[in-house]
Protein: Putative DNA-binding transcriptional regulator YafY
Amino acid sequence: MSNMHRIHWFDEQIRSGRFPNSSWLAREFEISRRQAQRDIEYMAISLRAPLVYIAKYRGYCYEDQTYRLPHLYMTEEEQRVLKYLAHRYRHYNYDQSDAVKRVAHLLERFTLEEQQTGSSQLPVFKADPQQLQFFEILSHAIAESRKVHIHYRDHAGERQFIWCPLKMLSQFNADYVVGYGMDPLQQTAIRLEGMIHVQMINETFQCQTDGLLGSWEESLPVRKPFVAEIRLKEEQQTELWQGYRIREKQGQVHWIEFYDTDAFLQHLFISEWEELLSPSWLRRKLQQSAESIIDRLAVQHKANVN
Structure:
């Protein structure tokens, strides 16, 4: 249920003169006292509710009886998307990172997140529905110290394993979860992008993460983008080429910035362009990928003929 439903209920209790408190709210909606208190703080800070705690009645009332809740409604799905975007903006460490993190802080206020601090030109992150779902499952697992079963795919192939998730982080436009399998001292970070399926299991783990997560708590390094020199079919009239920033252009030749090589190669396969001029290592990777696709198609064609 949305927190706005809880807030409206709390507002109704106040207007009825019942002096509700966090215990009432927690009991009514079967949530924790901490979550209930966060709802009340959200009313006071974000919704500007003139709440006053009356010790005599052990509950709240409005100091200004003319106050009305603003007409702000947000669904659970909208909150999940904002929470995910806040997470991505909070770990953004490229151009204008300070301004971007101020936006992250603003988004977190809407999602009731108690985390650290989001520009004139904001980066655009793809909110993939599957990764949003995995992000939510892993966040719950971290909060409840629950193990998860992960079906994972990477360059080594597919595998399944039990994982103890400790922390979510983003680096170089990719989401990771830090955790371990058996030994808490053998922590690694795995990408959400490689996950095929994630499921919480009814098994908890105990891990003192304060010291173990020290190395992951350090500020993520600021990474300079790669630059590809590409001749396009025509000169672009904006500063972006289908989402990628154009650093410089001379006629049809454009210098385009990118961070994730694999994602940029996929973009080149589906986009229209005339010639990839540089860098040479990117041309080689593109050629190798194209040859690999042609080889697979040839094998498939041969199998179909036979």
Remarks:
- The chain has three domains: 3-62, 78-217, 226-305.
- The chain has ten helices and twelve strands.
- The first strand starts at residue 51 and ends at 54.
